Structure to design on (70 residues):
């Protein structure tokens, strides 16, 4: 599906980079996108937004045990 948006048909390059660790990380993907400015900028923007959303969600976590004691 991503190939339809202009990505490389050889998708195994990212896995080859991460084969030593056995795990594919976000840094591996950012490394592969380093030469494609718009894609790299969008990926970094989405990572920043993910962090903002994680912080916002923590503000609304309800501690059920604490409520039961009140």
């Amino acid at each position: 599906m991503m190939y339809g948006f202009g990505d490389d048909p050889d998708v195994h390059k990212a896995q080859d980079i991460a084969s030593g660790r056995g795990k594919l990380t976000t840094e591996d993907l950012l490394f592969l996108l380093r030469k494609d400015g718009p894609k790299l900028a969008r990926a970094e923007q989405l990572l920043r937004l993910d962090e903002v959303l994680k912080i916002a969600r923590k503000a609304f976590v309800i501690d059920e045990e604490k409520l039961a004691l009140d």
Summary: Residues 2-69 form one domain.
